[in-house]
Each structure stands twice: as structure tokens, then as C-alpha cells.
Amino acid sequence: MEVRKVSEAVIRRLPKYYRHLLILQKTGVERISSGKLAQQMRLNASQVRQDFNCFGGFGQQGYGYNVSTLLSEIKNILSLNQPYRAVVVGAGNIGTALANFEGFERDSIAIEALFDIDPALIGSSINGKPVLHTDELETYIKKNGISIGIIAARRSAAQNIADRMQAAGVRGIWNFAPMDLTEVEVPVENLHMTDSLLCLCYKMNQNNLYEE
Amino acid sequence: MEVRKVSEAVIRRLPKYYRHLLILQKTGVERISSGKLAQQMRLNASQVRQDFNCFGGFGQQGYGYNVSTLLSEIKNILSLNQPYRAVVVGAGNIGTALANFEGFERDSIAIEALFDIDPALIGSSINGKPVLHTDELETYIKKNGISIGIIAARRSAAQNIADRMQAAGVRGIWNFAPMDLTEVEVPVENLHMTDSLLCLCYKMNQNNLYEE
DNA sequence: TAGATTGTTAATCGATTAACAATC
DNA sequence: TAGATTGTTAATCGATTAACAATC
User: Fold this and answer.
1) Which of A60, A18, A131 minimizes the C-alpha distance to B198?
2) Distance from residue B72 (CA) to nucleotide D19 (C1'), in Å?
3) What's the pTM?
4) Testing the interface with B: which of A202, A206, A207 to mutate, by most B Cβ within 10 A?
5) In angstroms, what separates the C-alpha of B60 from chain A's closest C-alpha?
6) In Å, what is the separation between the CA of B188 and the C1' of C19?
7) Inter-chain contact B185–A97, Cβ cutoff 8 Å?
8) Do A155 and A130 meet the contact criterion of CB atoms below 8 Å apart?
9) What is the CATH number of domain B8-77?
């Protein structure tokens, strides 16, 4: 299975396929054609086939795709067959919400600890996860084989945290701080909540009909 | 200022311009060229000019763009010159984080109440915002002129909530539930946190160099 | 005026969609 | 075998980038 440059657009669709296939499997659907899948997900059948063929052909002419096979292939493409250990820096609203959220566990992504500089928080725990002083970040990452660093701190601290996470050896950074990190070699996924909300404000005031 | 179909890609860049210009203004920068702005934001100068020209020309040949003017134009494009009242359905992790988050207020977006069906939560308040029973959703939206509905409930409830929000008159929906809403006429912005995390997992396992 | 930089048209690049031969 | 549907190539569409005349 030879993987070439996969476009960002394709990558962003992968979790959607994954989600949808999980539902299909749970519903007991055994096979699905690109046409049906496209219809359900509001995509184009050609696009679905093109997407899958970025990673090799998982289908069978005249039959379609076996849901379980496809699901496990996509799970594999997303590298969800290995566990991930994560830490969150910033035990504020977002950090707390993430620590309380159980949904990542299905994908074997476990938040193991939080870090903050607020003395009132240090030593406490959130959903059973310890809140430690940010000074201990590097040591903890190294000692516990943490591969994902989550930045849920204020903007002004984000770059420094990213640098330190990277130096300590994380393999990826999930950034909630509303800024673009620079000089980071590991992959960064930004999740800027406010940006999304502002896009909504924009769209709310366009008189375009939102009905493709 | 004649506005034609603005592409999704352009729309998604608008909040980033807004954010960056806010910083420039705060730093006391008075004017900026498309070239400089592009460099700072890691975009292309032509792209920057094209983007702005979707909405009319805000610049001046030989000078560039006045930061304050440009900022206020973009603020205007994003329709941030009006206040928005919002409610959140689902007073779980995400709902609580949103209610506690003060960052939206700068943009005059105020979360006024939360809704849930858990009797243990109803009657309480989060960051001064009441948690009400979801049965009261429609009444509240109508009575208080709520324009944004935020869905932070579980997947299985999301479509129903969306339908009810829309019927009650919200002008836009911000959806955190991991599913695609259907039959909604008002604009919907999806924010699927898990999708973003899964994209990170994908990228963490590609041996591409992430260094454009 | 000369230099800088926009607004805008044209060229390029990439992603989506269509078409169809291969084949289960 | 006939029908269905993939994998894949070709066509189309749209977004990004380049180029440059207009003009401050």
C-alpha cells in the first residue's frame, strides 16, 4: 500500500468516514457502495472512491465495500490501533472539559495529567487526573511516554509550552490557544473555537440560502 | 459594496485576519502591506488582496492597508457590530466550559442560559447563567430573542434539538455533537473536536516532513 | 516625480466530478 | 452470463498564485 501525498481535504474527511462507518457497523450494515455512502454523507461517489484509493483499494467490483473491512482499514489509516497518552497544559475551562470528556477513550487516547501554574489548582485532580505544576511538564512527558501535548492555556503562554512539549518529545500538538504556533516540527492541529463561532456569525448575516 | 459568493476558504480566513489585526492594532501598528501581512500570517500576498477584494477594496496603492480601518471593515464583514444572545443545550463538559469561557464577550456574544434534562443540574447556575429544563427551550428562545443555538448534547439528541431551535427562531446553530445535522435551513457551524484529534493522530504517523 | 503597493486580470495548480473499462 | 460497482483516467471546476497596469 503505497501512500503518496494525501491532501488536507482528504485527511479531514477521514474522521467523518470513520464516524459514519462506526454507525453503519453498529446498525448491522454489512456492505455499502460508494454511491450509497456518498448519498448518506452528502458527498460525491467519485470522491468517496478517490479518497479510499489514496490508500489502496478496499472495495470489490460489483459488490461495494465491506463495512467492517473498510472501518478497520480507516482505523488503521488514522493510526488508531495504538494507544496514545496525552497531557493538557492549562486546567481552565477547556482543559477541565477535556479531562472530563470520556469520548477519546474509545480511540485509546488517554489524558493522563494536567498542568497549570495556579497554586490553587496544583495538587487537585480532575476526573481522577492529577493537576501538576507546569514546571514538571518535561519530566512528566519523558517519564510517561506522552505522545500528544494539548495546549489549553492562554495565548501568551502557548508558544513556550509548544516549544517545551516538543523538546520533551511529544509527537503531536493539539492547540486550542487562538494563535498559530511557529517553529514546531511535529504536526500541530489547531482547534480555534472562536474562529468557528465567528464564521457562524458571518454566515448568519449572509442572505445566501444555505441549502445545497 | 457588492458581495458575491464568497468561498468557504475565504470565510475561514476571516477570523484569522481579525485576530491578527487585533494584535497588530494592540501593538500600535498603523499600516500594513499585503506582503507584510501575508508573511506574518504565512499566506500569499495575492491571496490576501484577493480575499479583501471579495468585499471591496480597503487599501490604498502605494501605502497598503490602514490597520484600524481594515480591522473595522473585517469586524463589519463578520457582523460583529451587533450583539448576539446564545443558549447552550447540554450542561455537560463542553456546555460548562462554554458557559465559563469569557472570551466571546469581546465580540458581544453572550451565553444567557443552559438547558439540560438532568434533574440534578436544573435550577443550578454556571458562571451566573441558569440551567433550565430543556422543555423550556422554545419559550426561552422566543422570549429572549436568542439568535444562536449551541448544541453541546449527545449525538442522539442533537437533531431534535436543532429542529426545535430552528422552529423557535434561532438564526444560526453551533454544533458540537459529532454528527451532521440535516434539514436545517439556518447556517450551521460544526465543531467536531474528536475529528480534529483524529486528524492529528493521522498526521503524527505520516513520515512527511511538516515544514512548508 | 519616483517608488511602493494596490486592485484586477491571467496563468497555474489542485481538488472535485464525470466517464468508462475492468472485473467481481 | 448479466448486472453492479469498483478503480482509474480524463474533464471540469474552483482556488491559489503570478503578473502588471493603475494610482496613491
Assistant:
1) A18
2) 30
3) 0.94
4) A202
5) 25
6) 34
7) no
8) no
9) 1.10.10.10
Phi-psi group of B106: left, alpha or beta (phi > 0 → left; psi -120 to 50 → alpha; rest → beta)? alpha
Domain A8-76 is found in CATH 1.10.10.10: yes
* Domain ranges for chain A: 8-76, 84-196
Q: Is A134 within 8 Å of A160 (Cβ atoms)?
A: no
| Kind plus residue range of the DSSP H or E element containing A36 | helix A34-41
Q: Which 8-state DSSP code applies to residue A186?
A: S
pLDDT of B1 reads 36
Confidence of residue A105 (pLDDT cuts 50, 70, 90): confident
| B75-106 residue pLDDT tens | 999 999 999 999 999 999 999 999 999 888 78
A99-113 burial by CB neighbour count: b if 16+ within 10 A, else e? Answer: bbbeebeebebebbb
| Closest CA in chain B for residue A10 | B199
Distances in whole angstroms, Cα of residue B23 to Cα of each of A45, A55, B27, B63, B150: 44, 41, 6, 20, 28
The grid cell for A23 is: 454507525
C-alpha cell at A20: 459514519
Class of domain B84-196 (CATH, top level) = alpha beta
A199/B14 CB distance under 8 A: yes
Contact flag B204-A191 (C-beta cutoff 8 Å): no
Average pLDDT, chain B: 94
In residues, how long is chain A?
Answer: 212
What are the start-end ranges of the H helices in chain B? 8-26, 34-41, 45-53, 67-77, 93-100, 137-144, 155-168, 193-204
Pick from B193, B92, B184, B110: which is nearest to B146 by CA? B110
Closest by Cβ to B202, choosing from A14, A147, A191: A14
Residues of B in contact with A15 (CB under 8 A): 192, 194-195, 198-199
B44 touches strand C (CB under 7 A): no
d(C-alpha A55, C-alpha A52), whole Å: 6
C-alpha span between B51 and B63 (Å, rounded): 18
Write the residue in B16, B84, B97 that is nearest to A94 by C-beta: B97
* Same fold for the pair A8-76 and A84-196: no
B39 in contact with nucleic chain D (CB within 7 A): no
